[in-house]
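Next comes this protein.

***
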Amino acid sequence: MFKPAILCVDDEVAVLESLEIELQQAFNGKYLCEFAESAAEALEIIEELYEAEVKILVIVSDWLMPGIKGDELLIKIHQKYPKIVKVMLTGQADKEAIERAKNQANLHAFIQKPWQSQELIQAIKSGLANL
C-alpha cells in the first residue's frame, strides 16, 4: 500500500521548493509529496497517482499560473475527486476567483503569499482532520 499524497501546484520553482521543505518538516515523510509547475502537469500527476492507486488527500494550488488558473483547476479536480481537500495559496487571486473556488470546488482554505508556514500546515492539518 502506498502512502497518501499531497500535491502542490505553482509555476514558481522556488515556491515549490519551500513547500517541499515545509511539508517534509511538518509531516516527516508521512505523506508522498508531489509537485507540479502547471495545472496541466497537476492533472497528469493526479491521473498517474490514481492509476497507481495512490490516494491524494490535499492539493495546494497557486491561483495565477499560465494556462489554467488555480480556481479553474480546483473546480475541475473537485468535479472528479470531490473528497480531495483544496487549499489556495496565492498572492494575487481576485475575490471572484476565491468565491468560485469556495462555491464550486469546496475550497477548504485561502492563504495569502507570502505565507506563514504554521498557517499553511494548520490549514492542511484541519483539512486532513475532516477526511
DSSP finds five helices and five strands in the chain. The beta strands are 5-9, 32-36, 56-61, 85-90, 107-112. Residues 13-27 form the longest helix (15 residues).
